[in-house]
Amino acid sequence: MEKTIVCAAPEEMGGIAQEILNTHPNERFFIFHGGLGAGKTTLIKHLCAKLDVIDNVNSPTFALLNEYLTDGGASIYHFDFYRINEEREAIDMGALEYFDSGDYCFVEWPEKVESLLPDDYVVVDIETIPKGREVKFYKNS
């Protein structure tokens, strides 16, 4: 089932994050589509806040991966594959092990590693529109 929510301001992303988590409570792998500046990292920050992350959440554009810890000691992995040129780079950094960890994984620019993605995940599409952002999310089945 696909859901679409329009938000007029970045602070509304917290409600969208909660809706995503409520709609997909058993999912741990999420991919994010959207152009530069669409709000992918902003939404991931809100998701991490809802999941009680105690670390500073920011874009891993240069590091490719940030690991965040929750208040309960769980790990959340945030990938940004914008800067890679081939999937081999993701494999070399150990992405498959993280993908298979069972921990939350949030992946920006998943089209760069499409053949490496697991079978089950939640797709989050963010589009800039005149009234703000349109966020669509659904399970990929």
> How many domains, in number, for the residues?
1
Strand content: 25-35%
Helix segment tally: 4
What is the gyration radius calculated from CA atoms? Answer: 14 Å
The CATH topology: Rossmann fold
Q: For the record, what is the CATH homologous superfamily label?
A: P-loop containing nucleotide triphosphate hydrolases
Structural class: alpha/beta
- CATH top level? Alpha Beta
User: Into which percent range does the helicity of residues fall?
Assistant: 10-25%
List keywords for this structure.
single chain; 141 residues; alpha/beta; Rossmann fold; seven-stranded mixed beta sheet; 4 helices; globular
Please explain how this structure is put together:
- α1 packs across α2.
- This protein has one domain: Rossmann fold.
- With 141 residues, it is of the alpha/beta class.
- It starts with a strand and ends with a strand.
What is this structure, in a nutshell?
The chain has helices spanning 13-23, 40-50, 87-92, 95-99, and strands spanning 3-7, 29-33, 65-69, 75-80, 104-108, 122-129, 132-139. The protein has a 7-stranded mixed sheet with strand order 1-7-6-2-5-4-3, with helices on one face. The chain is 23% helix and 30% strand.
Topology:
Blueprint: E1 3-7, H1 13-23, E2 29-33, H2 40-50, E3 65-69, E4 75-80, H3 87-92, H4 95-99, E5 104-108, E6 122-129, E7 132-139
Parallel strand pairs: 2-5, 2-6, 4-5
Antiparallel strand pairs: 1-7, 3-4, 6-7
